[in-house]
Amino acid sequence: MGATLRIVTKQQIVTALAVAAAACLAACARSQVDPHTLCSEEGPESTTALILDTSDPLASHQIAALERFTESLVKQTRRPDGSLQPSENYVAKGHLLVVYELPRAGDPGGTPQEVFRMCNPGSPEDRGPVAGFTEGEVAVMVRWSHFTKAMRSAFPDSVTRSSAPTSPIIETLRYVRNREFPGPVEIASSKRSGGAIIIISDLLQNTDLLSHYRGPLPPAKGLPQSLALNLSGIEIGVRYLRSQRDRHLQTSEHFAWWRKFLAEAGGPMTRTPESW
Q1: Tens of pLDDT, residues 170-197
Q2: Hey, which of 45, 100, 181, 263 would disulfide with 94, CB 3.0 to 4.6 Å?
Q3: Domain spans of the chain?
Q4: Which residue, among 34, 30, 10, has the nearest Cα to 22 in the 3D structure?
């Protein structure tokens, strides 16, 4: 009888410890989430910023490429061992995805247009053992559905509107870098990733200050101070939108100019560029 009582007592202790451990994990993992951005109260772990140049409408094959690219931002494939393999462009759970367009025609302030801002809340496949204690499967699926739906709906109007008279690509890059990312010193001293900027553009800069439509390309180094930027610590990716109309301008020398310009700014193309 006494032995039986001791066994029951041990089981109760083990159960109590398990419940306490689960409660501890839940308390440690619990954090407030912004209902609009789905980012935690501590802020995003890193940022991926897309700059979408819609100064000219996209061709049908470019729209298809953009759709595939958009899918890659949230795509993971299952390895043979059951683990998940994220795509090169994958925006990880807890990371912020923000999308900007170049300033719209007629905008007197010339301010780039933010069209999307949201953290990846994590797909149902991302749930780890800790999340199992703190998040219901339905809640995870709802957040994931909201995130992916909002992301995909951010683009349709952008890719079909008419041509704009200017293309301030460098100015937009400078604006996004300064607004969305910490300074170079902070990035260098932080243990977190500096983030990434992906430019989807024909790369034909066209403003009064600098235009790739006028004469030979200027030196990539020593541009006016208003075009200076520091991309140190930030990964850079490029999707080069090829234009039949401007093929005489979009030469290998033109792409090399951008490679040099970005490298001089401390942000060489660390991600494999693609032409669309």
Answers
A1: 999 999 999 999 999 999 898 777 899 9
A2: 45
A3: 1-30, 34-275
A4: 30
Q: What is the pLDDT of residue 31?
A: 54
Closest CA relative to residue 125, chosen from 137, 134, 142: 137
Residues lower than pLDDT 50 in the chain: 1-8, 10, 13-14, 16-30, 108, 133
CATH of domain 34-275: 3.40.50
High-pLDDT (> 70) share of the chain, %: 78
SS (H, E, C) the chain: CHHHHHHHHHHHHHHHHHHHHHHHHHHHHCCCECCCCCCECCCCCCEEEEEECCCCCCCHHHHHHHHHHHHHCCCEEECCCCCEEECCCCCCCCCEEEEEECCCCCCCCCCCEEEEEEECCCCHHHCCHHHHHHCCHHHHHHHHHHHHHHHHCCCHHHHHCCCCCCECHHHHHHHHHHHHCCCHHHHHHCCCCCCEEEEEECCCCECCCCECCCCCCCCCCCCCHHHCCCCCCCEEEEEECCCCCCCCCCCHHHHHHHHHHHHHCCCCCCCCCEEC
Q: What is the rounded CA–CA span in Å between residue 141 and residue 174?
A: 36
User: According to the model, what pLDDT value does residue 109 have?
Assistant: 55
